[in-house]
């Protein structure tokens, strides 16, 4: 485990089975990482119950921020992000330097909106993306977007390629990551309008960290990792693909030996460390999300990725109006 104290703000009310699974996941995370400190954001009686289950020596590793309102999964995300919800309070804690990162299994839309309002976007990023790491046969594959934005505009896909290449270089330690665009075939011209427009754009698009675009890839390339280290798609398709892969892992008795199933995704494009877990997360999923947030903070992933992007000297700043379908 990487050294270094880290403080994670945990949304106690995020998720279908919250707060019970979040409490259990937080306990697992604390037991696995002796340098982990948690700021529990939610009802004080729930947080106090978790603290009571800890050994006396570990209780000073937990602090509480009392908040009683959760961001409902079906409510308007912009309204909830401005309200005194648990996810907004968790983001505020990081802004106030009371925590280093945010973890939530609640509404993805509300979490992304709260992060954008609280942290602000990186230059050139209009829609942040969620990136998940999949344990492909030949090594980790970064898949994005997996639910941050449902749009499939060509410029958004091009921006995802830039973000994904920088993420793979920083978090996976890859030199010259290979970037592919997910489609229904590898021949030029395959796919819908957005994919057909994005493909030639990516051929010309400068990518950070020496990354290079390998062209169109298919679904099985995500599982093998043989053609690409970063696979780019829209949030709708990526989310469906991710859950399909997770279901296949479950039916096959588990993921490949190269790594565990993706249980959480990192939010790219905002100036803060945010990890989103599934709404149906179990306690081990929540613990995995907390561990991912701690890993990203210890590696200083957000400033490192931002620095890699700055190394493009502004050439990567594509906006949604620069490329059309």
Automatic annotation (TrEMBL):
Lineage, top ranks: Bacteria, Bacillati, Actinomycetota, Actinomycetes, Micromonosporales
InterPro entries found in the cross-reference section: FA_synthesis (IPR003664), Phospholipid_synth_PlsX-like (IPR012281)
Subcellular location(s) of the protein: Cytoplasm
Pfam families, A to Z: FA_synthesis (PF02504)
Keyword terms, alphabetized: Acyltransferase, Cytoplasm, Lipid biosynthesis, Lipid metabolism, Phospholipid biosynthesis, Phospholipid metabolism, Transferase
Gene this chain is encoded by: plsX
One of the record's GO molecular function terms: acyltransferase activity
Family: Belongs to the PlsX family.
Keyword check for ATP-binding: no
Metabolic or biological pathway, per its Swiss-Prot or TrEMBL entry: Lipid metabolism; phospholipid metabolism
Catalytic activity reported: a fatty acyl-[ACP] + phosphate = an acyl phosphate + holo-[ACP]
Domain of life: Bacteria
Protein purpose: Catalyzes the reversible formation of acyl-phosphate (acyl-PO(4)) from acyl-[acyl-carrier-protein] (acyl-ACP). This enzyme utilizes acyl-ACP as fatty acyl donor, but not acyl-CoA.
Subunit note: Homodimer. Probably interacts with PlsY.
Protein name: Phosphate acyltransferase
Top EC class of this enzyme: transferase
EC number in record: 2.3.1.274
């Amino acid at each position: 485990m990487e050294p270094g104290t880290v403080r994670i703000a945990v949304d106690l009310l995020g998720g279908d089975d919250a707060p019970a699974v979040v409490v259990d996941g937080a306990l697992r995370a604390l037991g696995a990482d002796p340098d982990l400190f948690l700021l529990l954001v939610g009802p004080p009686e729930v947080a106090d119950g978790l603290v009571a289950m800890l050994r006396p020596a570990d209780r000073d590793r937990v602090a509480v921020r009392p908040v009683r309102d959760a961001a409902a999964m079906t409510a308007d995300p912009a309204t909830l992000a401005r309200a005194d919800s648990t996810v907004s309070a968790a983001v505020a804690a990081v802004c106030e330097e009371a925590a280093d990162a945010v973890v939530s299994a609640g509404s993805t839309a509300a979490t992304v909106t709260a992060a954008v309002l609280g942290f602000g976007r990186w230059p050139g990023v209009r829609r942040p993306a969620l990136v998940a790491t999949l344990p492909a046969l030949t090594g980790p594959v970064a898949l994005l977007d997996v639910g941050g934005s449902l749009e499939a505009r060509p410029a958004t896909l091009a921006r995802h390629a830039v973000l994904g290449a920088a993420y793979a270089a920083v978090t996976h330690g890859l030199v010259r990551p290979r970037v592919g665009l997910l489609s229904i075939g590898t021949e030029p011209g395959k796919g819908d309008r957005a994919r057909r427009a994005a493909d030639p754009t990516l051929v010309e698009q400068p990518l950070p960290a020496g990354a290079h675009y390998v062209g169109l890839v298919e679904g099985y390339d995500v599982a093998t990792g043989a053609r690409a280290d970063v696979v780019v798609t829209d949030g709708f398709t990526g989310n469906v693909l991710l859950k399909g892969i997770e279901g296949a892992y479950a039916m096959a008795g588990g993921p490949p030996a190269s790594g565990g199933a993706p249980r959480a995704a990192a939010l790219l494009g905002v100036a803060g460390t945010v990890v989103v877990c599934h709404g149906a997360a179990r306690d081990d999923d929540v613990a995995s999300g907390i561990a991912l947030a701690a890993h990203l903070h210890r590696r200083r992933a957000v400033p490192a990725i931002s620095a890699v992007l700055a190394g493009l000297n502004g050439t990567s700043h594509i906006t949604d109006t620069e490329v059309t379908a």
